[in-house]
Amino acid sequence: MVEKKTIKLDDVAKLAGVSKTTVSRVLNNRGYLSDKTIKKVHDAMDELNYRPNVIARQLFKQKTNLVALVFPTVDNPFFAELEAELEKRFDQLGYRVLMGNSQNNPAKEQDYLKLLLNHQVDGLIVGSHNQGISEYQKTTRPIVSIERFVGKQIPVVSSDNYQGGLLAVQRLLNDGCKHIIHTNYPINLVSPNELRQQAYEDLMNKHHRKPITYSVSFDVSDEEKERVFRKMFQEHPEVDGIFADNDTNASLIIRVGKEFNRHVPDDLKVVGYDGANITRTLSPELTTIQQPIPEMATKAVELLLQLINGKTDVKSVTLPVRMINSTTA
Amino acid sequence: MVEKKTIKLDDVAKLAGVSKTTVSRVLNNRGYLSDKTIKKVHDAMDELNYRPNVIARQLFKQKTNLVALVFPTVDNPFFAELEAELEKRFDQLGYRVLMGNSQNNPAKEQDYLKLLLNHQVDGLIVGSHNQGISEYQKTTRPIVSIERFVGKQIPVVSSDNYQGGLLAVQRLLNDGCKHIIHTNYPINLVSPNELRQQAYEDLMNKHHRKPITYSVSFDVSDEEKERVFRKMFQEHPEVDGIFADNDTNASLIIRVGKEFNRHVPDDLKVVGYDGANITRTLSPELTTIQQPIPEMATKAVELLLQLINGKTDVKSVTLPVRMINSTTA
DNA sequence: GTGAAAGCGCTAACAA
DNA sequence: TTGTTAGCGCTTTCAC
User: Fold this and answer.
1) How many of the other CB atoms lie within 10 Å of CB of B193?
2) Are residues B102 and B38 both part of a single domain?
3) Which of residues 1-20 of B touch A (CB under 8 A)?
4) What's the mean pLDDT when you consider all of chain A?
5) A107 touches chain B (CB under 8 A)
6) A185 & A225 share domain
7) For residue A293, which residues of chain B lie inside 8 Å, CB to CB?
């Protein structure tokens, strides 16, 4: 293979008959330059088809204009929409975005954290669900978390999970449901998920009903999830309302319900959670709680940029959710 | 704000009482080193909480171990699954992945191409749908395209679109459909989409039926798409079978069909295209043509790595599709 | 208006 | 087994 020599700034300088400094100035529109010089330099650049080496610039500036998004996977309507919205905003601000699919694997999450510490990215947005990663405590570099408690000093952008839980359960109660079950993922200390759970339990207790919860891990196969839901219908044939922790599970529950001859919404009502666009297109019948994904993205980007720019008192924020009324409840 | 001085290799060297070279060797496990030295260096690193600066290393090596994925958006089941699969594979090979959502905007696509030319990434996977970006012709750097013809010298990984078209249309014919319509996105020269169209037309002609196609742009709102589909039902009330160019459109068509009192599959049969996992979870009833997303990802990664490693005769590949039988056709 | 020179943090010949 | 030195390609003070 023919090794093409890389054209560097110095080559341009020589061809144009000026110094490296001048070429650099032309490149960055900085300082005083005569039109004649600018033209000469541009001509030389064109002739050589010069491409500045961004890495060299990054080394000097100690800044990469890169951020990483650490989420379990992008192959999920909520995360896909969130990451797309984040990318759109970062792009406008001149930042490139690294995809960090952690698969909920702590080791992978730690790898991405290292990127940050190794100065390969300027900041991190984390929305993964692993706990106990000690590096988060040690670093003072820019990190913003979404829907997840990571460490004292790391700001969190979340939607109002307690309110979301109330809306969902209240809807089922209003619909006349007597036996409402909640599905969630295994609760751990780092997730605001527990606020939905809390809202469910508070409202159930207030209405003197016994809260029943089934946990489904986030990252197992659909088949595995369906097994859990089958068990749920078997153990609780009286169930007439379900508050699912996400829309995918709501879909699966409706499907499994059919196996038990439950027709939605006549003899089973289901409220989902997330309300991503894709889900609403593919499952328009689903009644669900919509998280304000675009606003969450906007806020997370805003906070991360504050951190990158050296601001220290960056505050966590909670954004309101809303109910999407459709036909499953 | 307290400016923390960055710890560099030299600081470690001084503390450990050795040279930079030695520290670098310890860092990279290269060359001969006495255990004692290794320990000293590690101790110094720990004490200073040293983090190597990856950018400096990249500058020296002229390699970033970064690749960019240029697709219209990640917020779509097909692209989300494809990008997730690509990321998984690249990660295992030590490559990080940049998300390049082009929104089908040629300017954005060109920006990402520049990343490659500016040596910020080692390679590019493109699956966006813009044509006429001349840079593709000029560069000899590593690019692999997915489901898209980009330039003579750029290898393409695609699924068998002609076969997919045949399967879909044949299914509708077998189901007894007499008036089959195909929806696609506006055909341009760079898309293998036209092969599906071709299969549809060939099969229709063979059965002496008139092919009718409605085009829906990829990146307009669901509302806009539904408008087109309404028009379709109005202009062709006789339609009894639809071969949609993707599952989302299939979903929308089924929904719009309901407005016209068409019940699927009794008086309207619909076959979708893509068969991504999310879609199958959220719309399990959909009969569709499944693209082999994981295999496409595997192949694309394989080809890109060959290019990155200097191989020149990298060949395009076509992978088989299969039918997912469900209840909409 | 322009240039010389130092240096961003790391690696790898080449020496010792 | 370890150290010296010269870059990787760019930017920026400081001098003219």
Assistant:
1) 22
2) no
3) 1, 4, 6
4) 92
5) no
6) yes
7) none
The sign of the dihedral angle between the CA atoms of A100, B129, A51, A309 is negative
Question: Structural domain of residue A193, as residue ranges?
Answer: 161-291
How do A156-159 and A317-319 pair as beta strands?
parallel
Domain count, chain A: 3
pLDDT for B106 = 87
Using a 7 Å cut-off to protein CB atoms, list the covered nucleotides of chain C. Answer: 1-13
State whether residue B255 sits within 8 Å of chain A by CB: yes
Q: What is the spatial distance, in angstroms and rounded to an integer, between the CA atom of B18 and the C1' atom of D8?
A: 23
B286-317: burial string, b at 16+ Cβ within 10 Å, e else: bbbbbbbbbebbbbbbebbbbbbeeeeebeeb
What mean pLDDT comes out for the span A256-272? 96
Q: Does A3 have pLDDT greater than 50?
A: no
Regarding whether A313 and A267 lie in a shared domain, the answer is no
Nearest residue to D12 via alpha carbon and C1': A21
Q: What is the reported pTM?
A: 0.95
Nearest Cβ partner for B80 among A74, A252, A312: A74
From chain A, pick out residues whose CB is under 8 angstroms from the CB of B312: 1
Structure token digits, residue A262: 């439950």
Residue-wise pLDDT tens digits, B6-48: 899 999 999 999 999 999 999 999 878 888 999 999 999 999 9
Is residue B16 within 8 A of residue A325, CB to CB? The reply is no
- Give the orientation angle of helix A20-28 with respect to helix A9-16, to 10 degrees: 110
Report the C-alpha gap between B29 and B25 in whole angstroms. 6
Q: Are residues A92 and A26 in the same domain?
A: no
Q: How many Å apart are A122 CA and C10 C1'? A: 19
Both B171 and B240 in one domain: the answer is yes
Residue B198 has pLDDT above 80, yes or no: yes
**Residue-wise pLDDT tens digits, A96-129:** 999 999 988 888 888 888 888 888 899 999 998 7
pLDDT tens sequence across A180-211? 999 998 866 567 778 999 999 999 999 999 99
- For the stretch B67-123, pLDDT in tens is 999 999 999 999 999 999 999 999 999 999 999 999 888 888 888 888 888 889 999
Q: C-alpha distances in angstroms, A66 versus A97, B77, B101, B242?
A: 6, 25, 15, 44
A217, pLDDT greater than 90: no
Q: Would you call B87 and A101 a contact, using CB atoms and an 8 Å cutoff?
A: yes
Nearest CA in chain A to B71: A84
Q: A96 CB near a chain B CB, below 8 Å? A: yes
Q: What is the DSSP letter of A264?
A: T
Do B174 and B207 reside in the same domain of the chain?
yes
CB-nearest to A278 from B59, B66, B75 is: B75
* A-to-B residue pairs, Cβ atoms closer than 8 angstroms: 148
Confirm whether any atom of chain D, the nucleic acid strand, is less than 7 Å from CB of B282.
no
Identify which has the larger pLDDT, A115 or B144: B144
Yes or no, beta carbons of A281 and B52 under 8 Å apart: no
* Cα dihedral sign, B103-B116-A18-A23: positive
Question: In this structure, is residue A174 part of a structural domain?
Answer: yes
Q: β-strand B212-215 against B156-159: which pairing, if any?
A: unpaired
Pick from B305, B308, B307, B251: which is nearest to B276 by CA?
B251
Question: Is B76 close to A75, i.e. CB distance below 8 A?
Answer: no
> Which nucleotides of strand D are protein-proximal, with an atom < 7 A from a CB?
1-13
pLDDT score recorded for residue A189 = 55
User: In angstroms, rounded to a whole number, what is the distance separating the alpha carbons of residues B33 and B40?
Assistant: 11
Q: Is residue B35 part of a domain?
A: yes
B303 within some domain = yes
